[in-house]
């Protein structure tokens, strides 16, 4: 058989798309013209804050993607399609971020943001499921770390449901809630690892 | 001989171009301003639909490209030029997609889209031909899977002829026809694989 | 020693820059609005022609870069800086192409284009020199193919001098001359290889 | 354990981000329209100068990054997060460069530029620290070259403090000072290597 799937290239195209998505989000920060009035400063800081949060959101997805297709993992052929679906949704993040930033109080923008996050999270969970099924031998059980990552992918789907609720009720708080979520998750992970390390 | 072609780099530049093409197409979705009137919602949904279809079109090309230059394939030196021709046409897809989206009823835009698709498909078929000729030993015949992929590349050229016809007669239906084509092809592949698996 | 240069990464960053440069040039093609008048058609065709030529110019540089840092080549540490200088000039190509396209009759735009081409060619020749010096053992002489590539790099510097002359005298013909040059070089290479193959 | 960090991908995403950052900075050079008046020429040269300096700044960061994660280096898992923080700050460089260019005399723009440089430098120093700690065996001491690189990372933090001072006092000189700094550092390195080589 000449034509075979190449895991290296699945990883390469994904990293390429991640890199462009991460970088083009900075183009959304408008360069201030003239003196920095208090209002202009407020807008600028809000734009930088939005950029940093959306960067963190995409960076977090990359962290999981990078482990999901890590060294030693066998990638089943269905993942080649599913990963593209995942990337097509991920590429929508700069768009919904830009929309959210331009109209922080709009329910539609917040809803669009939350829907895209929810779809990416679902896609990610499905990829976890298929990769685990393809790589775990029947007599094997998930290692602690793998279990933790899988659970994280599930928690992210639940949290994205929460984002949907927030976007429908307090749309202007969505970014703050996502920010709090990132801090909370980072803190919990750090604490759990510290506890495991000392245990 | 110091200077030799590097297949790794042919693959790297191709994945880089694919990644940028996939990602910049999202920049074409205009961020809605103000409240979402029914008309604005319609435009937005149409833009997202166009984005998803063109993403799927490029992703499909990547799937074939990835197998075409997969592990174990010897790349003849003529392919180094031909692959660049292929990429130069592929890069035109964001442009023709943007044009088609802005003037869904224009025959010119639909024709330009169909012509670019047809040229990319022809280039792809030629690459299949040259790669197979360079990698198949005289006493060897194509494996089932390879045969299937090669036939797909031929079918895509035929279908692009159909797109040309549609663009000349019902230009406003082109995207829907392409969408139907993608669904049809995905369904057929899935069915054939299922039948082969149970056979 | 912990910290060492990584040839893999020199190649990766170069391919990344090449991929973005190749792709963003298509963003310069303006999407036609409304019906295609003869004048609009002319502008559009001119833009596509300019895009294809500048793509071919950059693709040609990539062909040489790819062989220059091919498998088995030892990269001296000075090349890590020089390659970045080369890339910084290469990145100017979308800018000078855009300028040239917007003012096809302007001597300044043509001159800027020719100067950038000349600088990239000089940089390329210097890289060839340093790579050959670092990789050729004293008792070794260049293989035929290597000699041919090295000579090509020299010829490109000479041709860029010609472009400078054209830009100062017939600026509106520059793109056509570059197009003719590409065709001429491709034809000569093809002929030479054919003659060598039959000899 | 199925899911493991992949150093290859940390390097790939970083090179991808570096490549896009390097390339999109050229989009900031505005294409001159009409004849080149002395004022327009001045603006154009200033824009090209700004582009070349910011390219050199980012290229310098890449040089260190490339050695920092070079072949043979073990990457501790905390670096996967820290590297993303580093990249998120690095991506701000096109924005602050654009701002600085548009308002060369503005204290705010110069301050923003200097703050981003200082943060990237701090991040870089921290990465050096953690990588050295994770890779140096207790009985080992840093090789001369490693020591030199580590000291450079420290010097860059000190210099970024100087940039902060300049941005507060003579904001319009910031780019020139950075340019002088690049030349000075390049000259010193060259001199030191020459002296070491002849010693």
Automatic annotation (TrEMBL), chains A, B, C, D:
Give its localization.
Membrane
InterPro entries reported in the protein's UniProt record: TMEM175-like
* Membrane-topology descriptor: Multi-pass membrane protein
Q: Which residues form a coiled coil?
A: none
Q: Note whether Metal-binding occurs among the keywords.
A: no
Pfam families, sorted: TMEM175
Instruction: Answer yes or no on keyword Transferase.
Output: no
Where does the chain cross the membrane? Answer: 12-31, 43-62, 77-96, 108-132, 162-184
Reactions that this protein is recorded to catalyse? K(+)(in) = K(+)(out)
Highest taxon in the source lineage: Bacteria
Going by the UniProt record, its keywords in alphabetical order are: Ion channel, Ion transport, Membrane, Potassium, Potassium channel, Potassium transport, Transmembrane, Transmembrane helix, Transport
To which protein family does this belong?
Belongs to the TMEM175 family.
Which protein, by its recorded name, is this? TMEM175 family protein
Organism encoding this protein: Lactiplantibacillus songbeiensis
